[in-house]
Write a structure and sequence with these properties.
Helix content: over 70%
Number of helices: 7
Shape: globular
Strand content: under 5%
Structural class: mainly alpha
Order of helices and strands: HHHHHHH
Oligomer: single chain
Number of strands: 0
Distance between the termini: 58 Å
Length: about 220
């Protein structure tokens, strides 16, 4: 079997689905879900490595990779919001940010802009560094992995009929909960920050396209 970046993306989405399906089904199922979560995030790095090593990077492949990211983010945060471990505003934030940036990226892709290189939608150096650089992508992946694993371990260690830690004091429980809130909102904040360059340059691109479209229609009307 020849592994391609898109096949790896599909596999990591399956691992994410399996992880979420196992959460809340007992201590050992939660621990297995944490292991699958780590696997899913690690596969995110693998598909990029394969794309670079085998020179298989394409604009469509980049969009599929982003789609995989969106599925994983929304799936995990929605589950943890449903069980009351994070605020409902977090999955709403991720969904809104992802919908807006992906809409602008899609418009730019149709106009010939790629996700990287000289023809990228992002014009500023700081924007490309914040969105496209390896350090930024790695930092974001690590934050999501730590956040999801922390919440999964909290399920295994402190919740359910057979918690591994046994009964915990209110102070310990409050400290664990505080750590979860800090991790979840920090991940959400970094998600928004990484989306700002896309929103800024994408909005300028959209505004320019609308102006050009109106000018074209006006010219056609004059000719007619």
């Amino acid at each position: 079997m020849v592994w391609t970046p898109n096949k790896v993306t599909f596999l990591r989405v399956l691992a994410g689905f399996a992880a979420v399906a196992l959460f809340g089904r007992g201590v050992w199922a939660n621990l297995l879900a944490v292991a699958l979560t780590i696997t899913s995030i690690a596969l995110d790095a693998l598909d990029g490595h394969i794309a670079r090593k085998k020179k298989m990077a394409t604009a469509v492949g980049a969009q599929i990779d982003i789609l995989g990211d969106r599925i994983i983010e929304n799936m995990f945060f929605t589950y943890f919001a449903v069980v009351g471990m994070v605020s409902l505003w977090l999955p709403m934030l991720f969904f809104a940010r992802g919908a807006a940036t992906d809409f602008l990226r899609g418009l730019a892709l149709k106009a010939g802009h790629s996700g990287w290189g000289a023809n990228t939608l992002l014009q500023s150096a700081w924007g490309r560094a914040l969105v496209c650089s390896r350090w930024s992508r790695a930092a974001y992946a690590v934050m999501k992995c730590v956040c999801f694993c922390y919440l999964g371990l909290e399920l295994a260690l402190t919740r359910g009929p057979v918690a591994l830690l046994g009964p915990v004091t209110l102070n310990i429980h409050a400290a664990i909960r505080l750590g979860a809130e800090v991790l979840a909102w920090s991940t959400g904040a970094f998600c928004v920050i990484r989306g700002l360059p896309v929103l800024w340059d994408g909005w300028k691109f959209l505004a320019g396209s609308l102006v050009a479209g109106k000018a074209g229609k006006s010219t056609e009307g004059e000719v007619a």
